[in-house]
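Model it.
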Amino acid sequence: MLTQLINARILTPQGWLRDGSVLIRDGKILEVTNCDLAVIGAQLIDIKGMYVLPGGVEIHCHGGGGRDFMECTEDAFREATLAHMKHGTTSIFPTLSSSTVPMIEQAADTCTRLMAEKDSPILGLHLEGHYLNMAMAGGQIPENIKDPDPNEYIPIVENWPCIKRWDAAPELPGAIQFGRYITGKGILASVAHTQAEFEDIHAAYEAGYTHATHFYNAMPGFHKRREYKYEGTVESIYLHNDMTVEVVADGIHVPPTILRLVYKIKGVERTCLITDALACAASDSQTAFDPRVIIEDGVCKLADHSALAGSIATMDRLIRTMVQKAEIPLADAVRMASETPARIMGVSDRKGTLQKGKDADIIVMDDKLQIRAVWAMGKLVSGTDTLS
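Modeled.
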């Protein structure tokens, strides 16, 4: 079926296109133009001057809709993914917290099967751990945390090509070897749950770690030991210009002033937005998958209040927070939710921007930045084909 979105403010790689239209067929974008002439045979959808934006590419998400990816089942993967799709995420890399090898293998098996389906929004598996610094465990499951073990991770990587990202604390014994190995297999290596200082980060970067997990969270900044001062992980990552970062842009994990600082220093090209959402996101449930976690003040916390444990955010909330609280231009906020994560994960050939030939992953937002419609691979996921 041929679908044409008309009368729209469209974000393109060249900037805003006003009074434009997008033509969609067979899950692909046929054309993006400022010509509103109706195409014969197309289903016309009048956007009524609202924003037409590229769908969000979510690279760090633990669950949603009451389901957690650590359940490792097809039902859990489908329901959590659909819950986030209704809020503007059109591509997703499901995330596991620190897990056992059997759990990783079960999740990888599920992920592989779902990725094989036509027009699947699931693009690969993200492992957040379990090679993390115990002192910075936060909401991770402590009994699963350990040092990198090649006898463990090599078989996992060799057997499960669906794994596209793996996080670790680079100061751990064996972490540099681990980083070299996984990046050699095309897997994104990310610095996470760490106490790394400059030399650790520099060694990690040289070994292939090019990304930072939930920047500012579960990592130290500038600090003192006795009378001397030391750079933290945060400053060390800033000093490595080419390292990319992700931020939980719910306005709570990282305050709006710091979101603005990250944007100012790292910029749109090296900053992406993530939800780090737990099962209770996009859900009426106030119960987290992990019994240690409570929901309070619009965020997930460990019950003892020792750490944040994840968010209840969705992609649309990230964009609103960046624009309305961090005072960042809408175009840049959207790019950090779509174009930049697509490039970081190596899928920008088909995702992340509204361009001819790319997948028809499209969201419509009104002037209050509320979601009005979502298309994934040209299929309407949320909203109606008549926008009022």
